[in-house]
Amino acid sequence: MSSESDTIVIKAPAGTKARWVRQAGGMRLSDWVRVQVDRPANKNASTPCQKCGSVVLVADGQFWQCAQCGLVA
Question: Full-prediction pTM beyond 0.70?
Fold first, then answer.
């Protein structure tokens, strides 16, 4: 029989894990990883960011923000 949840083991370098813990901002690391996996993929903006000129956007909750400087689009 299977348990309530499946287990996935991620082996990451210590520096990467430390960065993830900082980005998790108080969330359990496993919950934060699950949220990151469920996020939409990066997309290209139709116009460059007004602040830094980047054209790559990342999902930030219900909004998209510039991957380079963090400006919300």
Answer: no
